[in-house]
Structures are given as C-alpha cells and as structure tokens.
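Sample intake — L,D-transpeptidase family protein
Collected from: Trichococcus flocculiformis
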Amino acid sequence: MDTIGSEELTTEPIIQDSEEKIDSETEDIDSSNQVSESDEETKSTELDSVDLIDSSGSEQLDSTVVESANSVTADVDSSVETQESSFLANQPQAGSMLAEEVATPSVSYQTHVQNYGWTSAVKDGMTSGTIGEAKRLEGIKISLATAPVTGGIEYQTHVENIGWMNVVSDGQVSGTTGESKRLEAIRINLTGDMAGSYDVYYRVHSQNFGWLGWAKNGESAGTSGYGYRLEAIEIQLVQKEGIAPSPTVKAYMEKEAGVSYSTHVQSFGWQNYVADGALNGTTGESKQVEAIKIKGTNFSLSGSVTYRAHVQDVGWQNWMGSDALSGTVGMGKRLEAIEVNLTGEMAARYDIYYRVHVQKFGWLGWAKNGESAGTEAYSYRIEAIEIKLVEEGGPAPGSTANRFILREEPILSYSSHVQNVGWQNYVFDGALSGTLGESKRLEALKVRLDSQPYEGAIAYSANVQGSGWQTWSQNDALTGTTGTGKYLEAFKIKLTGEMAEYYDIYYRVHTQNYGWLDWAKNGAVAGTEGYGYRIEAIQIKILSKGKAAPGNTTRPFVKKPSFVLGPNWTVEQGYFQATSGIRYYVGGSYIIVSIAQQKMWSYIGTQKIVETDIITGNPYLGYATPKGLFAIQGKQSPSVLIGPGYASPVQYWLPFLGNSYGIHDSSWQTHGYGGNLYLTYGSHGCVNTPLTAVRTLFYTYSVGTPVVIY
C-alpha cells in the first residue's frame, strides 16, 4: 500500500531548508557583519515560503525528499546555532504565521486494513484505507492534532458479528485487530468546546456502494444489514455555519431487520429456513415439531433473539441464544409451547410476534415478547410456527386471543360452513364464526368441547330452510346441510350430563335484516322464524353456572307475527288499523298512543316492549295532543322543556312533531297516570310517560320509529 502519513513528514525537511538558509546568512554576517533592512525583508519572505511548504505541501513530498530529510546531519557549530536563534527571533511575520497554524483545528486518523495492518496517519479530509483492492477496514484511531479550544473527539464502530461497540476517544482503537472482522459503519462526535465551534464530517467507501454521502456529528455512516465492509474513510472539521462537504445524503444504508427460523419435524428432519412470518413446519399431516432454531437477520442495533421450548416429558428448557437448538432431536419428543424474546436495543425498537399451529386447536393467537404460545397439560403437539418482527408498539399481525391454552377450564370451539366459502377454521369461546357484511348464509355448524372437567357433552340443532328443526347433534357432528344451498334460520344449543350442572352455554346469531340478536342460553331458540331470513354468523360462549350473561338477553329470537291485536286496533302486515277507520303503515317496529284510553303500547314485530298509562295534553286549556302518524325525530337525555312561564327538566326527551311535541318523563305528575287525569293535570300537548317506560323507549327505538296518536 502506498499511503504515507503526513504527520511523519512535517519536521525534518523543514529543518534542512532552514539550515541551508541560515548557513547563507551566517556567511553574510561574517563578511559584512551587518544586514540591510531590505535583506531582512528578503529573508523573512523566504522563511514564510518555507512555512507554507510545511502547511500545505508536506502531503505531496515523495520518498526521495524523505530520504534526503533523513540524511541531514545535526553537526551545526555553536556559532551557527546562536546566529540561527537570533535570526528566527527577529522574524515577526514568520512568528505570526506559526501562531496561526497552531490555532487551526486539525483531525488525524489512521486505519487498520486487511493484510496491511495499521496505515500511516492522515488528516483533514485525506483518504485512509484502500480503494479498488477489496480490503476491509478492521480498526480505526482518531485524534485532534490541533484544537483552538478545549475538547476532544469520540467515536464508535459497527463491527461484523458484534454490532455497535462502546464509544472510545482521542486516539483509542475502535474495532478489532487480529480477528479478521470488518467495520461496517462508524459514528464520530466532537466533545467539549470543540463541539460548540466545529462540526466533524466523515464519509466512507463501502463495498458495492462505493463512496457514500457525508455524515456529521454522531450520525451513522456506512451500512447495516448488508454484511458490506468499509474500505476507506475521510474525516474533516468544518467551522460552525461553514460550508459542508457534499453530498450529505445517503451516508448510511440500512437493510430492514428480520428474523429467520427452522424447525425439526417428525419424519422429515430439519426444514429450510424461512423468514418474517412464513410458515415453518407442517399442517394437515399430524407431524410434531421436535426442535427449533431462530436467528435475527440484518440487526443494526445491539441485541439478539432468545427462546425456549416446552418439551414433552421435560417441561420448559433453558433459554437459548441466536440460532441455537431448542427442543430435542432423535428422541421423538414433541414441542408443546414456546417463548421468544428480543434483547438489547432490538427489544426497545421491535416487538417479536409468534404463533403456533397445535394439534386439534389449529392456529392459536399471536404471542409476543416472551409470552407463552401453545398449550400445557393437553399433550398436544406443535405442528407449525410463524414468527415476525413488528415495530415496537405497532399492530399485531393478527388476533392475540387464545395464544396459550392451559388445561383448566373446558375449551369450546366451533366451525361454520359458509356459502361460497366452505368450512371455516375453528374459533374459540365467544369468537365470531361466519361472515358479516357479505350477505353469505350459514349452511352448517359443528361444535365441540375439549378439556372438559366433568362428564357430559354439548348438543345442538339447526332449523334449516324448507326442512325445519333437525335432530340433536353433539361433539363435533354436523348440524345443517352442505351442498344443498339451504340457509339456517335458527339454532338451539345445550349442555348435557354433569356439564349442564356446572356450566351455562350462551349463543347469539347475526341474521339477515336484523343483525345481531340477543343472547340465548341452554337450549333456547336463537334466530328467526317465518321471515325466510338467513343466519350469517354465530358466537357461542361457555360460562360457569350462574355467571352474568355476556350481553343483552332480551330478544334472541324473532318470530314473524300474523298480526298484533290492540283494544280497538290491529297491526297486520305492517299496517296499523283502528276500528274508527284510521289506517297507517308502521312496519315492524312502532309506538301507539290512545288519547281516549290514555294508554301507550310499543312493539317490535309481535313482541310487546312497553304498555303503560300516560297523560296527554289538556284539551280544556287548548293544549290537546295532536293526532296522526308521526315519527321519533330525535333523542336527548337529559333535557329541559321550556315554554311560557316554565322550564321543566326531564331525563328523556323523544320529540315526534318539531321540537314542541314529544314523549318524556314527568316527575311532577304525582297523581299517577291514565284515566281522566289528563282533563285536570294534562300537559301542554306532550305525552307524559312514567320514567321506567320512557327509559325503555329511549334505549330501544331509533330515530325514525313511527308514532301513531289516535
């Protein structure tokens, strides 16, 4: 290598030139013993030129100059030395130039290069290393040659198979020597007052990329994740607000971090490595995973992957490091669960997610950052695994429910056969099976119990389009049909034996037009009848006996009515018909108010929701409640009713005509409701309603619900 350090060439050649000039001057002094003023100016100018060679030309001196410098002897007699000292002392301009040189900051650096060892030091933007020789940098030392203010320089390198090393400073070695490890990136910073006055810029020549852009003040320069060596470096100081070298873009090229993994599978042995969420193992072949190896890829930060497995007849093993074997090989023992984690800076930057495919259960939910994934106490084999890195705090790759199942409570799972889809994967205890928003019918269902602590079974029956109720099926047998294109309209599900004594089974369905109905339990019907509406999805949940229901249980089943019969009215096929001849279309959900009887009724289909006495407007005072077909125009809770001379607070306000007439509670009605009270205590036209009744209306009926007042 031809690189020559500039610091080694700055002294001896200058001494040689100075001695020659001093000898000449000495001769003049001996002959004339006097120096003219113009001669002194000439000498000063000559000495200045020597200094300029020292400051700007030393890097260009060839080996001949070096040899000449080394051959100069020091046998100058004492009189010449005395005259030389006197001469230099009388050179004010040269002295100023030397002072300025000392005050200029300078950075010096040398690199340890593959096969060559330590190169000579260079400084201030010069190249250290090699270009075009495919030689790696293995170490570096950096220092400030001169500094006009206090401070130093610190730096750290990213080393092959090590990552970012600790920060070192002021001429210490960063990297390695004798280990054949490449530098891949570097960060450099000034310290003390130097950091406030100057910026340090640096760029690297990287394998395959060549010269990258200039980084500064602690920014990373180089590559990460590529396995590319640094081959050369340039460093320079720039005064704050000074002109930066260019370009300053793409100083650091980082490859995205990932994770790869391989499993040892029964009968097949080690599988090829896959990466970043891909499946490793098998599904549908009943083969157990017996061991696993996991490693990080393109980790630019400190840290690694650690993991441990729960092994048949062994339990949890010790934590293993990157790409080490966890599990067993040649012993025929299955993995039943696994935990995976990140360490170091990687743990602060990323979450590591993983999920397993387990015998009988299929895919469980995603675990992360050391959580257990799999099963315990079931003796179920892991058959496949997926692992993925996600930015810290980012969304999980999928559901995190049921990522680890410990055999303590019964596990309920179920699968639906869906139009144009077929059998879906089993879901667990309360999860949705089927589809929403796709207008697809459920055609069949299978339900099963695992790990039940008591004797008994789960039984279920479906009401099938055109066929009616089927006989009871149980324990993963099919109810419904496949291949006939028939929808299910309703379900019944129940527990048998001791299981029925200790647990309740709840279920609800999502039906065409109605959406989610309420929860049924223990053999009650969930769905519809008489409408020809398809079931589109189902949820099933098992709870300990007596625990609260998972949601509302008011209306799990809707049967199409033939008609609704009131005291002097009927609703049939959606039409309200009074005996007086009044006829309105109200659909399947409505509120009816009779002024004559001072009564209110509300229905959904044929199901009566509210029947209550009321007080309407006082006709004697000109406040008769208007009659006709109206609709709920809004809902407000609480509210204040304001009129001439009053402001009455109410809990619930449902206006049906403008914002003047509506249904509301009336705490001031202390004489009760119904009968002829409206003739004495009548309202200003609104429908005064008991609090419990109006609360039910408020939370049951939506804006737009028809209101008949007759």
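Post-analysis note: The longest strand covers residues 137-146.
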